C-alpha cells in the first residue's frame, strides 16, 4: 500500500512538472474561466446561475480528454512498459496512478472555480454544495475513463491529439455550456447526448441525484472501464 500511495504521489508531482499537462489541467481552463466568465456574465446576465457548472465542465473536459491520455500513451507506447513487466509490476498500476492524480488535479481546478466565480463574477452558488461536488466527481471519473481508453488505444501523440480534439470540441459546442441546446437542430442536440459533458452539465445544474442523468454517465464508465481492462490484458500478452 505504501508503494502504491508513493506511486500516486510521484505521478501527481510529475504532472505538475509537465508543462503540457499543467496547461490542460490548470492554466488554460482558469484563463478561459477568467476571460470568458466576464464576457458571458456581461452579455447574458442569466449565465451567472450556471457559470460555475459551465466553466467546470470546460476545464474537466479539457484536462481529461486533451491532457490525461498523454502520460498513458507515453507509458504504454514506449519501452517503459517493459520495465514494469520486468519488475513484475501490474500493467494496470500506471493507468491507476495517472487516473487518481488527474482526478485530484481536476477536482482542485474545479474547486478554485467554485470559490472564485461568486466573488469575481457574482455567480450563483449551487444550492446543494455537497451534492454538487458529488456530481462533479462522477463527471470527472466519466471524462477520465474516456481519456484512459484514448491513451491506451492510440500510441502516436500526434494522432492522439487529433482524435482528442474530435471529442473535445463537439463536447463543448453541443453540451449547452456555450449556448442553450434548445437553439440547436434536433439532430445535433441528439448527437450531443453521446458526450458526457451534456449529461454532466445538466446533472451539475440540478445538483441532485437524478438517475436519468446519472445513468448515461455510469454506462460510459462501465464501457470504458471494461475496454481499458481488455486493452491492458492485450498489452500484457504483446
Automatic annotation (TrEMBL):
InterPro entries tied to this protein: ABC2_TM (IPR013525), Nod_factor_ABC_transporter (IPR051784)
Start and end residues of each ABC-2 type transporter transmembrane domain: 11-205
Subcellular location: Membrane
Protein name: ABC-2 type transporter transmembrane domain-containing protein
UniProt keyword annotation of Transmembrane helix present: yes
Membrane-crossing residue ranges in chain numbering: 21-40, 52-72, 93-117, 129-154, 166-184, 213-232
UniProt entry keywords in alphabetical sequence: Membrane, Transmembrane, Transmembrane helix
Membrane topology value: Multi-pass membrane protein
One Pfam match: ABC2_membrane
Annotated source species: Clostridium omnivorum
Amino acid at each position: 500500500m505504501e508503494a502504491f500511495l508513493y506511486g500516486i504521489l510521484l505521478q501527481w508531482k510529475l504532472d505538475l512538472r509537465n508543462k503540457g499537462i499543467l496547461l490542460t489541467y490548470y492554466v488554460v481552463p482558469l484563463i478561459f474561466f477568467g476571460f470568458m466568465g466576464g464576457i458571458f456574465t456581461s452579455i447574458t446576465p442569466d449565465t451567472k446561475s450556471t457559470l460555475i457548472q459551465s466553466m467546470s465542465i470546460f476545464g474537466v473536459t479539457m484536462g481529461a480528454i486533451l491532457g490525461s491520455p498523454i502520460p498513458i500513451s507515453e507509458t504504454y507506447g514506449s519501452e517503459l512498459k517493459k520495465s514494469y513487466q520486468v519488475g513484475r509490476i501490474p500493467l494496470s498500476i500506471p493507468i491507476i496512478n495517472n487516473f487518481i492524480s488527474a482526478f485530484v488535479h481536476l477536482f482542485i481546478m474545479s474547486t478554485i472555480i467554485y470559490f472564485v466565480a461568486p466573488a469575481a463574477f457574482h455567480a450563483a452558488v449551487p444550492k446543494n454544495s455537497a451534492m454538487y461536488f458529488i456530481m462533479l466527481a462522477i463527471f470527472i471519473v466519466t471524462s477520465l475513463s474516456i481519456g484512459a481508453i484514448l491513451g491506451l488505444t492510440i500510441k502516436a501523440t500526434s494522432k492522439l491529439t487529433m482524435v482528442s480534439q474530435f471529442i473535445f470540441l463537439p463536447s463543448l459546442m453541443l453540451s449547452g455550456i456555450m449556448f442553450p441546446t434548445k437553439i440547436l437542430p434536433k439532430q445535433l442536440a441528439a448527437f450531443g447526448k453521446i458526450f458526457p459533458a451534456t449529461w454532466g452539465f445538466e446533472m451539475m445544474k440540478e445538483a441532485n441525484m437524478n438517475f436519468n442523468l446519472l445513468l448515461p454517465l455510469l454506462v460510459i464508465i462501465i464501457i470504458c472501464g471494461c475496454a481499458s481492462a481488455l486493452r491492458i490484458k492485450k498489452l500484457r500478452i504483446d
